[in-house]
Each structure stands twice: as C-alpha cells, then as structure tokens.
Design brief:
Mean pLDDT: 91
Shape: rod-shaped
Structural class: mainly alpha
Strand content: under 5%
Radius of gyration: 44 Å
Number of strands: 0
Largest sheet: none
Low-confidence stretches: none
Number of helices: 1
Order of helices and strands: H
Helix content: over 70%
C-alpha cells in the first residue's frame, strides 16, 4: 500500500469514526434541549391548570346564576303581559257587549 491509499483510508476512517458521530451527538443534544424545554413548559401548564379550572368553574357558576335570574325575570314579564292581554280582551268584550246593547236599544 502506498501512502496515498493509506491516507484515503485514514481520512475515511476519521470521517466515519469521529466526524459523523460528533454531528449525530450534536443533533441529539439539540433534540434533548428542545425536549427539556418542552417538559418545563408542560410542567408550567400543568401547574396553572388547577387555577384556570377554578376561574372557569367560577365564571360558569356566575353565568348559570345570571341565566336563572334572567329566566325568572322573563317568566315574570311574560306573565304580566299575559295578564294585561287578558284584562284588555275582557274590557274589549264588555265594550262590544255594551255597544251591542246600545245598538239593540236604538233599534227598539
């Protein structure tokens, strides 16, 4: 073997044994850092979730109570409107009856 072929073998061997594994290790380190950051973020989110749940549940309860109040008010006003309509209809019937009676008196 002459020195050129030996040099080619040594360079190839250095690429395979050192450079490629170093690149792979560097890539693994980047992925590890990314995953560690994600774990930290997930832990922060996990810690915040109970507090968020309490706030959302409180808002839901308040909204539910407000809706119940609105429903009661709506029923009350509808009932009042129905009462007014019934009184109005009754007065109109009485008025019509009086008109008919007056008209009947005029005819006789």
């Amino acid at each position: 073997m002459d020195w050129k072929s030996r040099l080619k073998f040594d360079v190839r061997s250095y690429q395979e044994m050192v450079v490629i594994p170093m690149k792979q290790i560097s890539e693994y380190n980047k992925q590890l850092t990314y995953l560690k950051n994600n774990v930290v973020k997930e832990k922060e989110i996990s810690k915040a979730l109970p507090d968020i749940f309490v706030v959302v549940f409180q808002k839901l309860r308040e909204t539910s109570e407000e809706n119940q109040i609105m429903d009661c008010q709506e029923r009350f006003f509808k009932d009042q409107i129905d009462i007014i309509h019934k009184h109005t209809e009754e007065k109109e019937r009485r008025y019509e009856k009086l008109l008919q009676e007056e008209h009947a008196k005029e005819i006789y």
